[in-house]
Specification:
Number of strands: 21
Oligomer: single chain
Low-confidence stretches: 1-5, 17-26, 29-36, 38-62
Strand content: 25-35%
Number of helices: 15
Strand order of the largest sheet: 4-5-2-8-6
Length: about 425
């Protein structure tokens, strides 16, 4: 098949041929028309265009969908922006590709049809549309709105696949509030919100992902519904020195956070061997008791204070800390120890205490793990007693001989720590 440039070349040759003819009569015209007709029949000027013209009638009337395989969250946000609507999209349906064409009917009817294309459902409350899975739809109405709010300033958010905790922090910052998220609060979400009161915006964002919000004082708490009650349970009364702290962190080891905050209040601390997890918190002007309990409860732990030592441990073990007597091991200044360890082998810590205090320390086979603590000017026996109590071990001593034993271990398994 000849290309366009081939046709131009042949055309020039035709003109040259006709000009060279000596006769200017009908012979030149006849020859030109004859050759032009020959090439147009056998070498079409644009074969692709001819094919397109032949195919065009075949596809006429078969209109492609307006949204052809786009992710549902993009389609929902686009349509809601055009209609001035507020929308939130769960990630479990937001990434589903949809083939959607607008049709007759109300805007909500079309949103319902769009949700079904993503195997989801849509709910509309407080002028906010929320797309989610059928399971999330069932749970959505079980989450109560945020109550006890005096300030209802509005927020505007426009994000796709954003971390929910980042959005919650933005809202809290806008309202000058602290925020504490329980460890299970995770997930990305898409939203288009314009001038929505912040309690409504935060409630809908959280409920779409299956979380509940509550506010106490100047702090927002977000957690699973079954855990919010534990986090907000009443705190024991404590004499307060009036000091308050502000603290912020993101995905930080709970032991580091707890240790840092106790240090702000000039207190020692110890975390049980079982304490693990990262926390994301931001609080402002909280007193000691509320701040430390908030940190502990986000990971399902409890904390107790005894003799200016904060213990971070499991709820089943905390009673052993409460039962400890006040200042049970008086010691001279020369015998006091100051130690600080992060995630260090318990056996190594006990070996150091034995060496510094000339003690004979015996442990049973299950007394092991990695410990984090900070103790300042404490009697060796007191440090050992708190290590035992925070982990549910049995503690006994006879002069320079000290024993830490797991209740499930046989006495025959006790070995002496060598130093």
């Amino acid at each position: 098949m000849l290309k366009n440039w081939d046709l131009k070349m042949y055309g020039r040759k035709i003109l040259q041929l006709t000009v060279s003819l000596k006769r200017k009569s009908i012979h030149r015209l006849f020859l030109t028309l004859l050759l032009a007709g020959f090439f147009s029949n056998f070498f079409p000027a644009n074969s692709e265009q001819s094919k397109a013209q032949e195919i065009e009638p075949a596809i006429e009337g078969q209109k492609k969908p307006e949204f052809n395989g786009n992710p549902l969250n993009e389609v929902a946000i686009f349509l809601c922006r055009e209609n001035g609507a507020n929308v939130i999209v769960s990630p479990k349906v937001g990434k589903v590709p949809v083939f959607f064409q607008r049709s007759e009917g109300s805007f909500f009817d079309q949103m319902e049809r769009l949700a079904k294309l993503g195997n989801g459902a849509v709910v509309q409350t407080d002028n906010v549309l929320a797309f989610m899975t059928p399971e999330q739809f069932t749970q959505f109405h079980l989450f109560p709105p945020i109550e006890g709010v005096q300030d209802s300033s509005v927020v505007s958010l426009n994000f796709q696949n954003a971390d929910f905790r980042d959005l919650a922090n933005l809202i809290a910052e806008r309202c000058d509030l602290g925020i504490i998220c329980e460890k299970s609060v995770r997930g990305n979400i898409s939203c288009l919100l314009s001038d929505v009161p912040w309690p409504i915006a935060l409630h809908h964002l959280a409920a779409t992902l299956g979380f509940q919000c509550a506010i106490r004082g100047k702090t927002i708490f977000i957690a699973e519904k079954k855990k919010i009650g534990f986090i907000l349970s009443p705190l024991q009364e404590q004499n307060s020195n009036g000091k308050k702290v502000s603290f912020q962190c993101r995905d930080t080891d709970i032991r580091d956070v707890f240790g840092a905050v106790t240090q702000l209040f000039s207190k020692d601390f110890i975390s049980a061997l079982s304490v693990r997890g990262n926390v994301s918190i931001k609080f402002k002007d909280l007193e000691e008791l509320e701040a430390l309990n908030a940190i502990a409860r986000t990971q399902g732990f409890v904390c107790e204070e005894k003799d200016k030592i904060w213990v971070l441990t499991d709820s089943m073990i905390s009673t052993k800390v409460k039962e400890l007597p006040d200042d049970p091991f008086p010691a001279s200044a020369s015998e006091l120890l100051s130690i600080c360890f992060r995630d260090v082998s318990l056996e190594s810590i006990l070996g150091l205490i034995a060496q510094k205090s000339n003690l004979e320390i015996g442990i049973s086979q299950s007394v092991k793990g990695f410990l984090t603590l900070r103790m300042t000017n404490r009697a060796p026996h007191e440090i050992l007693c708190f290590i035992a109590a925070s982990n549910g071990y049995l503690f006994s001593f006879d002069g320079k001989k000290v024993t830490l034993k797991d209740p499930s271990d046989s006495p025959s398994t006790i070995e002496i720590i060598h130093h």
